[in-house]
Amino acid sequence: MSFPPASGGARDGGAVSPRAARHMPWVTDGLRVGLFGGSFNPAHEAHRAASLLALRRLRLDRVWWLVTPGNPLKDNRALPPLEERVAIARRVARHPRIDVTGFEADLGVRYSYQSVEYLARRLPTVRFVWIMGADNLARFDRWQRWRAIADLMPMAVVDRMGESLAATASVAAQALGRYRIEETDAPLLADLKPPAWVFLHGLKSPMSSTGIRAARRGLDGPVRQTS
Q: What is the reported pLDDT for 49?
């Protein structure tokens, strides 16, 4: 089973039509695909660095940036339009193996679990890996059906500056502790039956979307998204 490549998009980061922004990326049987979800408000170089680290260390074929319609744990009333965030993300990603998509908007989903369940069911021969930053692992237990996400596909947690201790001591990390594999075995992760996860060190960028928005507030006054 495969999906055709997206058409009508702007790989160079230009304007993106609603249809192109919501097109599911190309995929075929047996590919090893990392799923990196978030509001990407805005996308930045640390997102790209984490994706390149995952591509290399997990031996993935592709990474999909899932630009969400909105984060259920945040106030989304002032979130920039999906097409705008996708366009910026594509400009930042600038890599032939990173696909940026907002296809979750057409699914009508609110939670990561719904997207993970859909992809695992619809594309059972694709070897998906869920990718998250260490800051997200620290609060993973607040996510809707977080244990079900861990049961549906392997997970890779990418270290972030100042987040290692909080992440590894978190409720979710402790609950899933016996399923953690050694970092040296990271290339095997996509082939493992879930639950299975790995903590990837080596990325220490202090950059964050929150920090970028805060800097913009200082330069331009209040921005549209405050959390």
A: 95
164: Cα within 13 Å, side-chain hemisphere: 10
**203 backbone φψ class: left, alpha, beta (φ>0; ψ -120 to 50):** beta
Could you tell me whether strands 32-38 and 127-133 are parallel, antiparallel, or unpaired per DSSP bridges?
A: parallel
Selection from 91, 2, 73, 75 nearest residue 37 by Cα: 73
DSSP string across 54-76: HHHHTT-SEEEEEE-S--TTS--
Q: Which of 96, 11, 81 is nearest to 41 (CA)?
A: 81
pTM score: 0.84
Predicted confidence (pLDDT) at residue 8 exceeds the cutoff of 90: no
Q: At residue 5, what are phi and psi to the nearest 5 degrees? A: -65, 150
Q: Is 127 helix (H, G, I), strand (E, B) or coil?
A: strand
Token output for 131: 């990718």
C-alpha 104/C-alpha 31 separation (Å) is 20
Q: Which residues make beta-bridge pairs with 66?
A: 37, 101
45-57 and 82-93 helices, crossing angle to 10°: 60
**Those residues with Cβ within 8 angstroms of residue 176's Cβ, 6 or more apart along the chain or in another chain:** 150, 195, 197
| Entry field: residues in the chain | 227
